[in-house]
UniProtKB/TrEMBL annotation:
Protein name per the record: MFS transporter
PANTHER family for this protein: AUTOPHAGY-RELATED PROTEIN 22
Subcellular location: Endomembrane system
Pfam family, one: ATG22
Domain of life, source organism: Bacteria
Species of provenance: Candidatus Mediterraneibacter stercoravium
Amino acid sequence: MKFKLTSLEKKWVLYDVGNSAFTMMVSTIFPIYFNYLAGNAGISDVDYLAYWGYATSVCTLLVAILGPTLGAVADTKNFKKIIFCIAMGVGVLGCIVLGFLSSWIWFLGVFVLAKTGYSASLIFYDAMLTDVTEPDRMDTVSSHGYAWGYIGSCIPFVASLVIVLGAGNIGISMQMSMILAFLITALWWLCSSIPLLRAYRQKYFSEAGEHVIRNSFLRLGHTFREISKEKHIFIFLLAFFFYIDGVYTVIDMATAYGQALGLDSTGLLLALLVTQIVAFPSVLIFSRIIKNVNPEKIITICIAAYFCIAVYAYWLDTQLDFWILAVLVGMFQGTIQALSRSYFAKIIPAEKSGEYFGLYDICGKGASVVGTALVSFLSQLTGNINMGVSALSVMFLIGLLLFRTAAKLNAQKQV
């Protein structure tokens, strides 16, 4: 029987379509424009990659610190949508402002603000999964979110790409082309959010009481104690920390990596567009397979595939190598993110989804502090960019071993 999304599920998926446009810009045009600004300031390629990595690490560190606290507050009745709106608004506004900046240091500063808002919004968006669908539909709904997010993000990206690459032919400056590109992305993100904001209702929550903030901290402390006892959740989060670290580092630094290797900018952008296009059918195919295959097996396959991708990156030095890498990433990127999200949503208490997804985000986007910093540090230390990127294979290997342990513990708990 063909799977059909409900109206609310479609609106939830639509936010993935909107925010993915920002992700696509951060992975492609943002670092290229920063490279342009940094080049004008006389910054070397190795330092450019390092500064971009450090800025990304600061973003994820901020969200890792704020996430659990905001998540605990969001679990209070009627608070999840409010905090989600604030975080999204910061991201959208920051995206618009970025186009007007010509100083590389100011660009990095506002980028940190916009990326932090974007990442924070995803904590509450992911936590909404328990409110918009049922446990037996979570894997497929989550997969549809990533799948349509990948293909939907291509629309504003292609429009922005045409403007940026064709600025000279259109008769506008680089600065004006960037203003238009960032504006298109921000408006796409904002407009895609409106249907969810209008329809969403928080189904699972804690009562507000008289002291919302204090009670939120008390619940958060209780949650930390709970997780230490629930070994299947604790080990999964630890595994997730390691394997998703590499995934997000690849997403955040792919274009910066290619630029630092001296590869053609246009070719890099088109290769990353191919990643999005490949990811769309790949996620949907895996979402069908998962109906007959245990999700733990598919997540295991994805982690192992990323380990091989990281090892392959050590020898990457041509445009063709980068294209092959882009296709391979596209095959597994969306699936590992979608199934990790739904897997976690099914093993946690629904009424504490905000708190738990705040912790999930620490182990997710917060983990990429380690990945981006590791790539940046080793690149500067050795003077070899490939060495820094290939070091991520160790993170995937550790993540794989821990995930298999978590899967066994979860299976034992279900018996």
